[in-house]
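Anyone able to model this chain together with adenosine-5'-diphosphate?
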Amino acid sequence: MWLTIAVGGVSLGLVAWMVHREQVTLQRLREASLRLAELKTQRHLELVEEQSKQQALLDSMVEGVLLLDPQGRVKHMNPALVRLFGLSGEKRGIAVAEALPVPGLSELAARTVQQGRLTDQEVELPGDPGKILQINAVALRDPDRMLAGTLFVFHDLTQHKRLAEQRREFVANVSHELRTPLSLIKGYTETLLAGAKEDPDTATRFLQIIDKHADRLTFLIEDLLTISKLESGQVIMNLQPTALHEVVAQVLEDLKAKAAERGTELRNEVAQTLRIHGDGDRLQQVISNLVDNAIKYGRPGGRVVVGARSLHEDIVEAWVADDGLGIPMEARERIFERFYRIDKGRSREQGGTGLGLSIVKHIVHAHGGEVRVESEPGRGSCFYFTLPRVNESGD
Ligand code: ADP
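re: yes, here you go
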């Protein structure tokens, strides 16, 4: 009997111990799977975070990024690429040649896969205006060296190339403009030294020519310095409430003799009360360049009028009008470019540098204004420019 009770007790104890062990094991298992789930979630979150970081990086890049799958179909495009090509609609899954208007892109993709990478490939896109792109690409491989895709980076070089071209053109123009008067000065000096100086009339005539071309060189260098200062932002406009009538009166006084030589009448029709926010010296330069042109390209015995009116309470529009040659339609934008002239011979003959209107444009822009021209060829031109107005309270 006691034995039975003892065996029963031991058995019960054993069962209880086994149940307890099982519970502990189950608890450990539950903890382990919880930990595993936690780790998985954490890894997942890390991956999501990593992916969104990569996405943000791609989205913020100025370069266009294109990812192709191993079959050469679009897998991903960043927003810069969409903007670069002005793309619309879903392109994922489409063959690259159909998705992007880049000639020979699928051949470039094939070469990238073959060679592993492609560097500094320049491609010109057709169109007006066309684009010049630099393409770099790399073939992506998985740990087993299997092709996982091709990554392209597109860099828009159009602006950079255009600026480099403008710089080259500018340097060529400056050299040409400097060389012309210099070779004339040299030529006449040599002729004088070779004997022409013995004849007083010839000597005087040649010296006058030398003097004129030396002046041209001086004007050119002054204008070049002004342009370079304006373009590099070195000139700080000192905007002050200014009476426009006074500035115009000063310019017309300075150019009186030149106008008289051509029998040109100069008129200041700007109201005495009109005040603008402007840098007096720089405005004088604007009006002087425009009136000087109006005299040069105006009709001999003609008239040059300077006027102004309030466009609305904040803006004044001023103008310089002549009744001369006029400007053909196709040249109206281009005359504001450096060294652009409609008639090179005539401009040089008058001592022009080809920089006057470019200087006008820079100064007016620095005042927050705009400049434009209206013209009827054969009947005259009118150059308009806007300036900030001083309102009634005189702020
Ligand atoms: P330039 O020193 O040759 O006068 P500008 O930059 O002042 O240089 O002017 C550029 C060109 O614009 C001139 O060469 C001329 O062909 C044209 N132009 C400027 N002003 C006038 C005008 N009032 N009438 C006709 N053509 C003009």
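Residues 289, 293-294, 297, 322, 324-325, 327, 335, 340-343, 347, 352-358, 381 surround adenosine-5'-diphosphate (CB under 6 Å).
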